[in-house]
Known about the structure:
Elements: E1 4-9, H1 15-26, E2 29-35, E3 53-56, H2 62-72, E4 76-80, H3 85-94, E5 99-103, H4 112-120, E6 131-133, H5 137-145, E7 153-154, H6 162-178, E8 183-187, H7 196-209, E9 215-219, E10 232-234, H8 243-249, E11 252-255, H9 264-271, E12 276-279, H10 285-288, E13 295-298, H11 303-315, H12 318-332, H13 337-345
Parallel strand pairs: 1-2, 1-4, 2-3, 4-5, 5-6, 6-7, 8-9, 8-11, 9-10, 11-12, 12-13
Helix pairs in contact: 1-13, 2-3, 6-9, 6-12, 7-11, 9-12
Amino acid sequence: MEKKKIVFLYTEIADYFLAGCKALIEKNAEVHIIRYPVNKEAPFQFDIPEKIKIYERNNYDKKTLLSLVESINPQIIVCSGWVDKSYLTICKVFKKKAITVLTLDNHWRGDIKQRIASFISPFYLLKRFSNCWVPGSLQFEYALKLGFNKKSILSGFYSCDFDMFYKQYLANKDEKQKYFPKRFIFVGRYYEFKGIKDLWQAFIELQTKEPTEWELWCLGTGDIEPIKHDKIKHFGFVQPKDLPEFIKETGVFVLPSHFEPWGVVVHEFAAAGFPIICSDEVGARGIFVEENVNGYIYKAGDVGELKKQLKKMMSLGDQKLIEMGKKSIEKAKQITPDSWADTLMKLL
């Protein structure tokens, strides 16, 4: 059977995206990825299978990039947003001879910028894209506002590498059953919008008032100086392949973002069997976090509320924490690299 050719016009790639691409290859697809350079703030090292063909965006101008895609002659083109004008030109040229898919992860907020985008979309985006692929319901609403009809909007755009994280759960569950690690873990960039300072403040205030054995482990880098505290540990940027040692030693995941269109990391730690605390600005909460079932959700930026949720989690017994983690896994199973790949293949 002839392989179906899929071209991804991307900015930054990630391990979870490559997991989806591997699933596509297993479904007899030929995968071509055009990508931007690796972000210096998050210098991921990728293990890219030989069957996935990678092209560096910086090596092509508008004309040579179009020639490249024409030489591939794909059945599907998936474009990451609408920032790159050359990408948009390619989609316009191919719209009548291929399925052209726009990916979108912003929530509909109804601000001036989004309203302008909605107004010009019929004359601009809809002339370039046959479909729109979004992670969840908040982005689905935005796609509708842009003029895409319901049948042309795909869901489940983001999936973690489910198998990788679930394997960590299986590897650690017996040990955590004996003694659940009393450590919160944050994974993300050290920026204001990530709410990292809220987390530090809430945790320190709790430990000052009522000291406990709980610690806070933070993985990431950014423009915020790591705070010094004897129960807060900083590990800097960590490659995905090195995450298992931290998953083994920690128990509850926290994402206190002020702004987070989605947050694949929530899906990852749900798949690893973690109870979760996150703000109401985290898009992934809608699928992977249910209040009082596998985690707690609080109003973004409200340090007092975050303190309450941390304290609530710290007061739970080991068995309750383990049960919450199991509920997280059930929620994580809703989207996998295999279902992600199926979404694209079904377009054909």
